[in-house]
Recover the amino acids of this structure.
């Protein structure tokens, strides 16, 4: 009996001791919370996606900040691409000269046209601060630029179709300039997509573009300015001599395939007596025609000569005044429009 009581007392003492120890142990202090901006960094977007983090006093402002971060990343990605500007010039002998310029251009503003494709990955809120982690797939980020690409591609296709079916010289030159601009815009759109990791098949339209350039090279190789009409006269030697300083000329004795025939017409001098003596005047005209005879333009000019003694002196001064005319400058401006480029 005494043994049982002793055992009970020992157990009771031990239990009391344990309870006393538990009551005297102080709880551990709470761990300090990390700043909300730092904690947001724990919720990264899936690999390869664009990520934006925003903190503000309310959810909408925080989301706006996160979306703006993504927009700036898109802008930075596009701007960091060194856009290669290539210009190609193919000579008549078939040799191609390519010049390449690199320049950085801002292609987008810091905003997202398809904001609805931004996904909220995490939202945190405490102590009056809201934090948002937003994510965006690169394919979604590229959607507006795909639209830009498609528009540029359609424009290039349309421009190539016009260029390939145009034969009038001025329309051909103009369509070539339009083709160069359309291709530059198309290349910009392609490089923007490539900067965002989108690599589609561009080979087919590139092949069509090269074919259009080859067609224009063939056109330029066959295109000529031909001399015709009063070539052997004083007027002809002067007029065609001036033109040949800026544009190569060819005799119409060669076959006329593609180009412009410059036909010079010279009137007989008309002389009459006047108060200062005998005055002689002459009218000349330069007609621009196609090889098939279609008239493109007609340029006219008049020059005079005055002789105090007789008509021979007037005619002599008439020829001398040919080079002092006022019409040749305008003629050269017009002919320059018809030189292949």
């Amino acid at each position: 009996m005494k043994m049982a009581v002793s055992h009970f007392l020992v157990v009771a003492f031990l239990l009391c001791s344990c309870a006393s120890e538990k009551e005297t142990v102080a709880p551990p202090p709470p761990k300090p919370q990390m700043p909300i901006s730092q904690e947001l960094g724990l919720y990264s977007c899936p690999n390869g996606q664009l990520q934006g983090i925003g903190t503000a006093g309310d959810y909408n402002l925080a989301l706006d900040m996160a979306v703006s971060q993504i927009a700036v990343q898109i802008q930075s990605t596009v701007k960091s691409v060194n856009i290669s500007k290539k210009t190609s010039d193919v000579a008549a002998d078939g040799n191609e000269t390519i010049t390449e310029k690199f320049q950085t251009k801002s292609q987008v503003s810091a905003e997202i046209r398809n904001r609805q494709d931004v996904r909220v990955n995490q939202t945190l809120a405490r102590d009056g601060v809201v934090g948002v982690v937003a994510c965006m797939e690169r394919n979604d980020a590229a959607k507006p630029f795909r639209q830009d690409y498609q528009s540029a591609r359609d424009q290039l296709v349309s421009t190539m179709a016009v260029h390939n079916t145009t034969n009038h010289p001025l329309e051909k030159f103009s369509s070539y300039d339009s083709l160069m601009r359309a291709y530059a815009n198309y290349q910009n759109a392609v490089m923007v997509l490539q900067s965002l990791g989108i690599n589609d098949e561009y080979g087919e339209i590139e092949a069509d573009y090269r074919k259009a350039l080859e067609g224009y090279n063939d056109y330029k190789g066959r295109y000529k300015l031909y001399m015709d009409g009063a070539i052997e006269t004083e007027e002809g030697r002067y007029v065609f001599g001036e033109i040949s300083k800026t544009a190569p000329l060819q005799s119409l004795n060669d076959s006329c395939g593609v180009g412009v025939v410059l036909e010079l017409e010279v009137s007989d001098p008309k002389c009459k007596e006047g108060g200062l003596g005998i005055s002689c005047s002459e009218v000349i005209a330069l007609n621009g025609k196609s090889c098939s005879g279609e008239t493109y333009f007609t340029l006219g000019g008049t020059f005079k000569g005055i002789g105090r003694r007789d008509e021979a002196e007037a005619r002599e001064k008439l020829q001398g005044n040919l080079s002092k005319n006022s019409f040749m400058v305008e003629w050269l401006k017009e002919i320059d429009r018809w030189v292949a480029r």
